[in-house]
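Hi R.,

Here's the chain you asked about this morning:
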Amino acid sequence: MDQYYTTGEFARMAHVTIRTIRYYDKKGLLKPSFINESGYRMYSDEDFLKLQKILSLKYLGFSLNEIGNMTIHDTSADILKSLKMQIGLVHKKMENLEQMEKALQNTTQILEETNQIDWTGILNLIHLTDMEKMLVEQYKNGENLNIRISLHEQYSQNKKGWFPWLLEQMDFDGARRILEIGCGNGQLWKKAEPSVLKGKYICLSDLSDGMIRDAAENLGEEKAFCFDFRTLDCQKLPFPDAEYDRIIANHVLFYVQNLSRGLQEISRVLSDDGVFYCSTYGKGHMKEITDLVQEFDPQINLSEVALYTIFGLDHGEKQLKPYFGSVEKRIYEDSLWVDRPEPLLDYILSCHGNQNEYLYPRQREFKEFLEKKIQKHGGIAITKEAGVFICRK
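And here is the predicted structure, written out as tokens:
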């Protein structure tokens, strides 16, 4: 039989104040399991798990608004995933604190021995102090990417899967040096056959240090040794001309600030007989999700800019032609059929638009909105329009 506690009992057992519990209730972070006939707010054992997660994330540097988006549908089934996430964050924070301790000791020692301030050391301390915020931001970016990948992996009707399909479009015969731009968490190579990797130098690059770390961790020790991980900007590649036989940019080019400059650099470092593979979306990609949120609240935009307008399937060939002799387009045939609200809600909250501002105070209402849609139709059909351009010099 489930055990329930009043607000006072719950607060005492958790060693927090009643005011804290009431504040989290008011903010929508930790609602009681139910309110009894006497009007008492009652909390369950499962609510202790939700409180632990809130306090842990708060300690690790997340704002209450961000925490709200990460605790909307916590159940006992989420415990393992939640705890692993917190362990990862704690490890990163520990690494940062160890670096800071070492820098403090070095700076102190120099001052004691020379009576002079080590301004380089002070600047390093400032950088390390600011690193904690950067770690949280990088983690959020990595988690958001994982959420978006997970929705496709769980609900795609094409059982081949995007990453295996994309690898099949790539011809690595005779390729010795391969560069991936914007590798994210390295998922493209997660299930790559050993024969694809054997005898090749593969550089995985990204603009984000955090993504590079995630890629190394995601690929694991068994595969990580096959790759060279580098933080770099494709608008200024630190490589000589014709350095790579194959270059890959998977759903990346629409994020490049100066696309012309980026394509010029990619073309420069591609060998004369090399191939450039760049994937992107069409204007109909995931349009039903946009329709859903705007039906719920027309003020919501899931992206500040429609990415396909920057570099998309419809006009990408025209943008690539000035830099490559031939451009071929291949389409990935797929769609989603989603029969649970939680993955959709996660996906929507992971987007780059203003959805958090409008959905945060109405999360449970929006989840109920999704549940009604799913109950009515048995699920939600979502269009996918994705493909890859194969470019040769």
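One quick note: The radius of gyration is 24 Å.

Cheers,
M.
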